[in-house]
Design a protein that fits this description.
By secondary structure, the chain is of the alpha/beta class. It has a single domain, classed as Rossmann fold, CATH 3.40.50.300. The chain has 10 helices and 12 strands.
Length: about 325
């Protein structure tokens, strides 16, 4: 039986625009995330993909209330996170942790690894004594593949991959129910990426946390995800199982993204779908379907009516008036 751990409904974020003559035409604000609803089950990995600037990272931060939503609700294990006070939210954060893209930037250069990893335990009271915390740090370092002898060193003594292992150790130190991984391997070498992905999968299998995996590398996503959500200009335009998205995508934007993924076999070649125009500005989102200025199958209704996200053709949920599966293999 699947247990829903995280649920978001109608989540949105508008960053206020600037005022004054220098910012004429930009006073309405930036619509970074627009009416996003999703859920995750225990032990599941939901990947969020899309072009840079589509709102992936903002969505991850909204789910943890690292930034406040303009509208919508988020619940974790049935608790409405949106309604918690500041003090209540600080205590609740032990149930939802984040792994950031830059492992060096998210580690204090002045603290030892033992201090960095043990700080959440001390803050949330999961380990009562300094000795217990140090023993737990040693256990966590072993879990993430680092020797316990390094716990008194500082981040500058480690490689990028090792730093990300330390960030992961810190995230799991308080046994969270949800982990938001915001492009956790994009700054690492390809060989190290595979090690970190395998580590996250092993830890998830052991602990059963739900993971939102934000990425732009579709090859990595195919390896780690159970389900995939595709974002465009702040909205989810298609969401479904990994097999549905990768073998028969329905939204024209999803089809274009996947057509750019290199084939593993040199004997197979996909037809490359090249989109015209540029991504519209989130300050001035097009009316109707926001993808219609670049869509090869757009019709008049696409310019005036925004399509709802719904199941179509027995496959994924898709926000498109004329969605049709495109077998990519």
């Amino acid at each position: 039986m699947n247990t829903t751990v995280l649920k978001a409904e109608g989540l949105g974020k508008t960053f206020p625009g600037r005022s004054g003559l220098a910012s004429a035409g930009r006073s309405k604000g930036v619509r970074a995330v627009d009416d996003v609803s999703l859920s995750m089950n225990a032990g599941e990995t939901l990947a969020v993909v899309g072009e840079s600037g589509c709102g992936k990272s903002t969505l991850g931060r909204l789910l943890l209330r690292l930034i406040e939503p303009t509208e919508g609700e988020v619940s974790i294990d049935g608790t409405d996170v949106s309604s918690l006070s500041g003090g209540e939210m600080r205590q609740f954060r032990r149930h939802a942790q984040m792994v950031f893209q830059d492992p060096f930037g998210s580690l204090s250069p002045r603290r030892t690894i033992a201090r960095i990893i043990s700080e959440p335990m001390e803050s949330f009271g999961t380990e009562a004594t300094a000795r217990a915390r140090r023993e737990r740090v040693a256990e966590l370092l072993t879990q993430v593949g680092l020797p316990t002898a390094v716990m008194d060193r500082k981040p500058r003594h480690f490689s990028g991959g090792q730093r990300q292992r330390i960030c992961i150790a810190r995230a799991i130190s308080v046994s969270p129910r949800v982990i938001i991984a915001d492009e956790p391997v994009s700054a690492l070498d390809v060989s190290v990426q595979a090690q970190i992905i395998n580590l996250l999968q092993d830890l998830q299998e052991d602990s059963g946390f739900a993971m939102l995996f934000i990425a732009h590398d579709l090859a990595v996503v195919r390896h780690i995800a159970d389900r995939v959500a595709v974002m465009y200009l702040g909205r989810i335009v298609e969401i479904g199982s990994k097999d549905q998205i990768y073998t028969a995508p329905q939204h024209p934007y999803t089809q274009a993204l996947l057509s750019a993924v290199p084939e593993a076999s040199p004997t197979r070649r996909r037809k490359r779908i090249v989109l015209g125009g540029d991504v519209p500005s989130p300050v001035k989102v097009p009316s109707g379907c926001s993808f219609h200025p670049r869509c090869p199958i757009a019709q008049d209704i696409c310019r005036t009516t925004r399509p709802a996200l719904a199941h179509k053709n027995g496959g994924s949920e898709v926000a498109c008036h004329f969605a049709a599966p495109n077998p990519l293999g």
